[in-house]
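OP here, attaching both records as promised.
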Amino acid sequence: MGIASKEILKKALRGRSLSRNEARKIYLDPAIELFDLLCTANSVRKSCTDGHIELCSIVNAKSGNCSEDCRFCAQSARHRAAVDTYPLLKTPAIVAAALSARKNGATCFGIVTSGEKIRSAEEMSAIRDAITTIKKKAPGLRCSVSIGSVTGSYLKELRRAGLDRFHHNLETSERFFPRMCTTHTYRDRLKTLTAAKRAGVKICCGGIFGIGEDRDDRIDLAFALKKLKADSVPLNFLHPVPGTPLGSAAPLPVVEILRTIALFRIVLPTAEIKVCGGREVNLGAAQRLIFFAGASGMMIGNYLTQPGNDPADDLKMLRELGLKVK
């Protein structure tokens, strides 16, 4: 490892902000061994967060028939993936999913709907009512929504109902975004996130990796999230689904995934870095290393269209690692 890289790692350990060039240096430098990078990221996690692991869970509250063409997504009506398709779940079903998530140790629960946005007044009202009910039946459980593009006025309405966070991923760099999606733009996503911040809602925003992007795209995403001051950053790794344009994509190497998690922790020292979709299929037995790479949380339970680990197995893993759940 060169002197310059050593000094950058020392700077990161002190919790100091890195420039893009510094982050690029330690992410791309082949002389920096994975162990050294992970040790740095883990130290940053322990010194810049409270040390606890946060668990989140989601419900696929409205599935399939999405008009957008994101190349990785199984729910797009433009692709031919075999997924369940159904309208917005009734409030009791959403609330039941939230209570189950709470029982499994989740402290944040997300209501996720397919589509570019929620269009009907009935659906908007139903989501608001679900949040209100969850807050009454599961005090302390943070509520999040991932419902596409929204107006500031509706977000304020949801905030009054008890909404804590708004989830809306940038997915990748601005440069690479048009190769991933053509039915809306990177600027559209930024506009939605800006509306959420103005409405006083905390931001949950991250991306997906293994979709054809390069390392510079990942670095650009990390610094875009730093500029946004994202509170929570979910990191997803492609789980190829047959019938989508990326259905036969090769998985990222485990070492590349761990280095990427470490990059985001070092660039975003105080953010909640959560490893979410694709964790099981991409990492297998190496899943427990995500925390040593700097992750401070993970999603438990099932994902939108793919099954996850049994929550009991994930909780057992955390106990074996001696990590405390928030």
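Record two, same layout:
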Amino acid sequence: MDILRFFSGAGYFCAPALLGALLVGLFPDGTVAGILGVSPTRVDLATNGTPTVVRVRNKGTESVLVQVHAVQWSVDVDAAAMAGEVLAVPPVFDLGGQGEQVIRVALRRPLKEPVEQAYRLLITEVPREAGEPNALVFAVRLNLPVFVTPKGARADPVWSIRRGSGRAAELVLANNGGAHVRVQSLSLLGDGGAEPVLSVEQAAYVLAGEERSWPVFLPAGAVKELIVRAETNLGELEAQVALPGG
């Protein structure tokens, strides 16, 4: 589960998953309709259209109304287009307290493209009106990555440094393959340096044919190349990256 969003009226509050259980204490004047859990937290769809099962559980005591739909992969899921090629059934359901619902997710048509397709599955609690005047009602949205990976499709990560002005630069990860790579964490080290010049702990996806960059401040001196070490879904990666024009 990548994102949990708690809505109030037209706005929303972004918060980590662990805060869900603390909402009642943080917002004593509000109500929490339910606390949703999901398994698995990543969906891998079959290319032939065979359904994959996703289980949603209401960990709260009150029933909740839940809406499910798939969107195109986007950093901003609120602006993402609907993914009509992905079917999620049932699209709307009422989930009682401590109850569980099975959702079946599948492609409407078999995948023919040789490159992996990526989507987001949004499982959203529909806010209900509060029982008391001026009370806040919070609802949860679960955001699951969805991948349809053709047989033989593989990621091909290539690291490089893109210079900016002065000592400013970017560490670039280009994915030249046909499937995604997920970076859990990475560090960038200088020649013989024990301390990294860049350390990233936030996970990031790089889809097939796309790239991701991280700003870095290059070390002073006659450094010719750097070493990047990354924990990924492909295992631990290590590569030397030369400084352009260095």
